[in-house]
Automatic annotation (TrEMBL):
The gene is sucD. The keyword Ligase applies. The lineage of its organism: Bacteria, Pseudomonadati, Bacteroidota, Flavobacteriia, Flavobacteriales. It comes from Vicingus serpentipes. This is Succinate--CoA ligase [ADP-forming] subunit alpha. Its EC number is 6.2.1.5. Substrate binds at residue 159. It is an enzyme of class 6 (ligase). Belongs to the succinate/malate CoA ligase alpha subunit family. The active site is at 247 (tele-phosphohistidine intermediate).
Length: 292
C-alpha cells in the first residue's frame, strides 16, 4: 500500500522541456513511473522523451487523464503553475522549485483551501513509492518496498533514512519530502495522518528541523491519535539562534523552535527520538520488533 502516488498514477511534468524537467523526467520514466506527458507553454504538439507536450495543464489533463503533476518551473512562475494545476483538476501537485517568494506562496496556500487537491512542497524532493512511482528527485536505487512511511523536511535526510531503514531489513511504503520553506502545502502532521490511515504502513519515520511548529503540532496529534510507532529526528541542534540554516524555514524564532525543545516535546508525546541521523534505521527496526 502507499499514499499519494502509486503505479496507477498518471503523471505530467510542468517545465517538461527545460534542463531540470528533462533530466528528472528521464529518471522517473526509467524508474517505471507512468509519465503521460508534460507542459511547456508554446511547445504544445511536440514530442519530448517520446511523450506529448502540451501548452497548458488543462490540455494535458483532457488528453491524458493526468492526476499528478510535478513542477520544475522557475521560482518567478512557479506559484502560477501551482494554481494552473489546481484549476485543471490535478489531485496531487508536487513542487520541486526552490526560492519561490513567500509573498507568492501566501495567496497560493489560501486559494488551495477550497480545492480538491494536495500540494507537496515547494522546495522539496518529491514523493517516492518504491516499485510504484518516483515523482521527484529522490535516488530510486536506495529504496525497497515495505511498510515504513517517511515524512521529512530535508531531502538528503529522506534518502539517508530510507537507506538505513532498508539496510535494517525493512522497507518503505512511501517517502514524502514535504519541503523546507516557511509556507508549504502539506504539513508534517498532515503527512503523518496519511500514514496513520494507510493500512499497510506499520511504522513512521518523522524528520524535522529547527524553526516553526510543524513537528510540535504533529507530536501532539500523534499523542492524541497515533496508533503506530514513530521514530523522530530533528536537524540543526548546533544552529545559532536567529540565523537561517540551509532551508528558508530553518530559523530559530522562539524557544520552542530549537532542536532541543522540539525533541523534548516529541519525547513527551511518546515518539522515539534519536540524537543522530545515523541511528534512525536501528531505532525503527527495534521498535518494529517490540510492536510485532
Amino acid at each position: 500500500m502507499s499514499v499519494l502516488v502509486n503505479k496507477n498514477s498518471k503523471v505530467i511534468v510542468q517545465g517538461f522541456t527545460g534542463g531540470e524537467g528533462t533530466f528528472h523526467a528521464s529518471q522517473m520514466i526509467e524508474y517505471g513511473t507512468n509519465v503521460v506527458g508534460g507542459v511547456t507553454p508554446g511547445k504544445g504538439g511536440q514530442k519530448h522523451l517520446d511523450r506529448p507536450v502540451f501548452n497548458t495543464v488543462e490540455d494535458a489533463v483532457k488528453e491524458t487523464g493526468a492526476d499528478v503533476s510535478i513542477l520544475f518551473v522557475p521560482p518567478a512562475f512557479a506559484s502560477d503553475a501551482i494554481l494552473e494545476a489546481a484549476d485543471a483538476g490535478i489531485k496531487v501537485i508536487i513542487c520541486i522549485t526552490e526560492g519561490i517568494p513567500v509573498k507568492d506562496m501566501i495567496p497560493v496556500k489560501e486559494y488551495l483551501k477550497d480545492k480538491d487537491c494536495r500540494l507537496i512542497g515547494p522546495n522539496c524532493p518529491g514523493v517516492m513509492t518504491p516499485d510504484g512511482a518516483k515523482v521527484g528527485i529522490m535516488p530510486g536505487f536506495i529504496f525497497k518496498a515495505g511498510n515504513i512511511g517517511i515524512v521529512s523536511k530535508s531531502g538528503t535526510l529522506t534518502y539517508e533514512a530510507a537507506d538505513q531503514v532498508v539496510k535494517a531489513g525493512l522497507g518503505i511504503s512511501t517517502a514524502i519530502g514535504i519541503g523546507g520553506d516557511p509556507i508549504i502545502g502539506t504539513t508534517t502532521q498532515e503527512a503523518i495522518e496519511l500514514f496513520m490511515n494507510d493500512p499497510e504502513t506499520e511504522g513512521i519515520v518523522m524528520i524535522g528541523e529547527i524553526g516553526g511548529n510543524l513537528e510540535a503540532n504533529a507530536a501532539e496529534w500523534i499523542k492524541a491519535n497515533g496508533t503506530k510507532p514513530v521514530v523522530g529526528f530533528i536537524a540543526g541542534e548546533t544552529a545559532p539562534a536567529g540565523r537561517t540554516m540551509g532551508h528558508a524555514g530553518a530559523i530559530v524564532g522562539g524557544e520552542n523552535d530549537t532542536a532541543q525543545a522540539k525533541k523534548r516535546i516529541m519525547r513527551e508525546c511518546g515518539i522515539t527520538v534519536v540524537d543522530s541521523p545515523a541511528d534512525i534505521g536501528a531505532a525503527m527496526a527495534e521498535l518494529m520488533k517490540v510492536n510485532a
